[in-house]
Amino acid sequence: MQIRYAVAGRPIRHSLSPVLAALTATHLKQAGLEVDLTEMNLLDSEDVTSPMAWAWVNRNRPQKEVINRLYGDPTTPSSLSRLLRLSSKVMSDVKAAHSSHVPNGDTLFHEAHERVKTRRGANESWISLASPLKHLLSPRSGVHPIDDCLENGAVNQLRWDGDNWFCAGTDGGGLVAIARHFGFDFEAKGVEAPLLCLVGGGGSARSCAAAWAAVGGSIWSIGGRRSLDKRGPWIQHLIDGDAVADNIGPRLFIDFDIAAGKPNSSHSTDADIHLISSYNSQEISGAVEQNESGLLLDGRWLLVAQHLEAWARLYCPEAAHLLPGLGLTMTRLLAMESALRAD
Hints:
- This protein has helices at about 15-30, 50-55, 75-95, 150, 170-180, 205-215, 300-315, 325-340; strands at about 1-10, 35-45, 125-130, 145, 155-160, 165-170, 195-200, 220-225, 250-255, 275, 290, 295.
- It has about 350 residues and is of the alpha/beta class.
- It has two domains: about 1-170 and about 305-340, 3-Layer(aba) Sandwich (Rossmann fold); about 175-300, Rossmann fold, CATH 3.40.50.
- A six-stranded mixed β-sheet has the order 2-1-3-5-6-4, with helices on both faces. A six-stranded mixed β-sheet has the order 8-7-9-10-12-11.
- The longest helix is centred in the first third of the chain and has 17 residues, at about 75-95.
- The chain is globular.
- It starts with a strand and ends with a helix.
- The model has no long low-confidence stretch (mean pLDDT about 90).
């Protein structure tokens, strides 16, 4: 199976998704799956039709050159070869997750039941959508959703199998996986239920609210540039600000209003976990840090979690049981960044 992979949005040059795609494909290939990344691209676009056109045509007219400071222009054979070469080296060097990345054991992205797509193309195109593209597809777009991402305006993954489009929203599943990874218990109910403290109401925020509500958590919508829609499937799980003090469950705070590639929030609240929704490709001192009230998690956590969720549910669900865990993939990503800087 030959795969063309792209990340689309604006801005996009900071994206580490191509690095994760190379790591995940290399892992699955070493596990015996026939998956070859033949092309990667960063598609700078404010409309979703251009990335979809890229997927349809094998030989596209030259795209606007987008260069990442860490791995360069992924469309060039040398950059792609370098990513795959260093991915193989990281696989050999990193055998286990860093201890701070697996506080409660590693989190895997497969379920007990089999999840196999109905059709697999010999050549496929996969696209990760970033802001501002996540809300541009609708149920009338001719794309087949595997979840409620179209209704929620929260599509962040597309798959073209040569005949049909399929889509998913994996931001929310990734967020829930992170919360569970760090010990949140979604079996707790009432005032003991995990609380999501959420700033923003765009595609990523809606995806996270829907997923959090689906597993029984409570949501405090703090507002932001766009408030969370009051008509979504999360409506019964919203609590007012006055009731937040009564909630004794663990809290996760995330601000989706911060700019892509600039992980600084102007909002703050007491929470067990402060998860940064964005990241940049500059070197970081640590992916997990302790702050005054709890843990501060770099935005790479959400990137890694939603990326693994995409492979498990949309890209390669037949091989979900072969995917690496969340903590191991985070460790490998940081090692890969170091290897790219040193190469």
